[in-house]
Design goal:
Layout (H helix, E strand, L loop, with lengths): L39 E4 L3 E6 L16 H9 L23 E7 L2 H12 L4 E9 L6 E5 L2 E3 L7 E3 L7 E10 L3 E8 L6 H9 L18 H9 L8 E9 L6 E5 L4 H11 L2
Parallel strand pairs: 3-10
Antiparallel strand pairs: 1-2, 2-3, 4-9, 4-10, 5-8, 6-7, 8-9, 10-11
């Protein structure tokens, strides 16, 4: 048959055939300033607090080389961002998933970065999230603990597994929408990748809209199914970082910030309330 390039994704390999793969070299992403609008909640010489929209990646990575929060911060702050995390993640103290909205803080100098990182490590920094989940979240108040690591069967997912990093999430149900869904407040003691998504799924109430963990129940009211299919953003888990508190690295004053739920989550709650 000779050598040929295979472009058909349905091509079936037969016995005796040999396949040669050419893997392109990894292209490192180095951020450049981009004029991207930011909703700045607070800013001074040391820190900047942003209300990040769903759909924005925090820092450049393979597949997302630009258009990130870091690109926007470089344009907004110039060269004042902390360099502790290197050129790819200047100023970034903690992260939010791409499709999670809400409050995020960045450091504008190394002193501030050290202080904020220490507050994260000692749990002095407060982070409060609002999640809309499937089912009746019971018990109504609780703490979920479970070590989180990479899921060996699905590399895009995280899972509670032996050998993972310690993780603890405190939750409280704010409202039930019949037996269809619940509004849950979560507070973090740790900040593992996908922590809230993994912990709530393990507890039996995954986030609505979550493409990795939030499998939609079979029996969903027609109005809700239509809303999710036509008006809910694709791949958007219903999770919002509502509250953020920390000790200012210079003034040592405790600062508390809150961000209202974004329009998409308010619309989803409206539909749930009508069920």
């Amino acid at each position: 048959m000779g050598q040929q390039t295979i472009t058909d994704t349905a091509f079936k390999v037969k016995g005796g055939q040999q396949i040669d793969l050419t893997v392109p070299p990894l292209v490192e992403a180095y951020p450049t300033p981009q004029n991207i609008p930011l909703e700045v909640v607070f800013e001074d010489e040391d820190v900047i607090v942003i209300n990040k929209p769903a759909g924005m990646v925090v820092h450049p990575a393979p597949g997302n080389p630009d258009g990130t929060l870091v690109n926007a911060l470089l344009n907004h702050c110039g060269e004042s961002l902390s360099g502790i995390n290197g050129v790819k993640r200047p100023g970034i103290v903690h992260r939010l998933d791409k499709e999670t909205s809400g409050l995020l803080i960045a450091a504008k100098n190394d002193k501030a970065h050290h202080s904020l990182a220490q507050q994260l490590a000692t749990r002095e920094m407060g982070r409060c999230y609002i999640a809309l989940v499937w089912g009746m979240a019971l018990p109504q108040v609780g703490t979920i603990e479970g070590p989180i690591g990479r899921d060996p069967r699905h590399r895009q997912r995280m899972a509670i597994r032996e050998g993972g990093k310690f993780a603890r999430t405190h939750y409280k149900v704010l409202k039930f929408f019949g037996n269809v869904a619940s509004m849950v407040e979560c507070r973090l003691d740790t900040g593992r990748t996908h922590q809230i998504r993994v912990h709530l799924t393990a507890k039996g109430f995954p986030l609505i809209g979550d493409p990795l963990y939030g499998k939609q129940p079979r029996s969903v009211p027609a109005a809700l199914k239509t809303f999710l299919g036509e008006r809910w953003p694709q791949s958007r888990q219903a999770l919002h970082a509502k509250g953020l508190s920390f000790i200012h690295p210079t003034s040592h004053e405790k600062l508390d910030f809150a961000a209202s739920l974004p329009e998409d989550m308010r619309n989803l709650i409206h539909v749930l309330e009508l069920l």
